[in-house]
Amino acid sequence: MNRPLLTIFSTPKPFTKPHINLIQSNALKSWINLGTEVEVLLIGKEEGVDEAARHLNIRFFPEVQRNSLGTPLISSMFAVARKNSSSPFLAIVNTDVILLPDCLSTLKIAAQKFKKFVLAGQRWDLAVNGQLEFLSGYDVDLIRRVKEYGRRHPPMGSDYFIFPRECYLDIPDFAIGRAGWDNWMLFKSRFEGWPLIDASSAVTAIHQDHDYSHLADGQPHYHLPESKQNVLLAGGECSIFTLSDATHYLTDARLQPKKITLKRIWREIEIMPLTKWHSLKIGRFFYYLFHPKKAYAFLRSHLF
Does 1 map to a domain? Predict the structure, then answer.
């Protein structure tokens, strides 16, 4: 048996709420339906994950390191996935996100051009209230639904990252499902000089709408203390990159450098200490130099 091209790994939410069960099942089935070039790993022993893995015939690894609040750590997830896979490419994907075959064709285009790179992109938000059938032509139907009813999410982070297994060998102990870690993934790509490819126009990543009842007090993840801790682990606000910081974009099966604009030139000057000089210390100084209101708030919180 040939080794797969891509290993997708993730830590699902507990399978304890009907709608979460539904959207996670839809997402996992979409990954499986990508075919023999893809293997799927589920990591963590949240309630119901083992049963879902057996039902879908997915490899399951219950042991993962957690923080003091019991949230799985990204660093441990990467270690488990790397240890238990042999594919040349890895992908961490949120388990409420449906992927279509265009993610594989996009990966192959990037791999022909670069040895190391990171593929990420904006998602489409879509209300999905029923079980999806992955029959012939399902991707065409889903793309039609997205164009008709979907909403493009802002380019703040990404719900998927696809990269060669040689990338991301050192990762801080981020809490999964909280803000900041995905922005760091983008930052790390630029910091290491790996081409950061915005695949928003090439990869149809469909995020199925849900509430935040699985989190403390039902709050969105960016309001939680773990998110603040993630930002600190990332190196502070200067390390919060977005898809606007990509170096390339992929559209119509063509990989192209991002267009040069005055706004982009200004941003590249701001992040030069990080992307060219590899200095977090100078990077923080430049961040506050370019964002005086942030600098004032920082000084006020520390001096008064």
Answer: no
DSSP state of 28: H
Residues 155 and 218 in one domain: yes
Residue type, 91: A
Count of domains for the chain: 2
Separation of alpha carbons 213 and 217, rounded Å: 7
Tell whether 171 is covered by a domain: yes
Residues 41 and 76 in one domain: yes
- The share of the chain scoring above pLDDT 70, in percent, equals 95
What are the strands of the beta sheet with 97-99, ordered from one edge? 97-99, 205-208, 124-126, 151-152
Q: Which residue has the tokens 């590899």?
A: 278
The predicted-structure confidence for 245-265, as pLDDT tens digits, reads as follows 999 999 888 999 999 999 999
In terms of residue numbers, what domain contains 232?
6-251
Query: DSSP readout, 183-245?
Result: HHHHHHHHHHT--EEE-TTT--EEEEP--STTSGGG--GGGSHHHHHHHHHHTSGGG---GGG
Q: How many helices (H) and strands (E) does the chain have?
A: 11, 13
Asked if 253 and 109 count as a contact pair (C-beta separation under 8 A), the reply is yes
pLDDT the model gives residue 212: 64
Question: What does the pLDDT look like over 224-238, one tens digit per residue?
Answer: 899 999 999 999 999
**181-206 burial string, b = 16+ CB within 10 Å, else e?**
bbbbbbbbbbbeebbbbbbbebbbbb
Average pLDDT over residues 72-90: 98
Rounded to an integer, the average pLDDT of 183-208 is 97
Look up the pTM and report it: 0.93
Residue pair 102/203 in contact by the 8 Å Cβ criterion: yes
CA separation for the pair 14, 221 (Å, rounded): 16
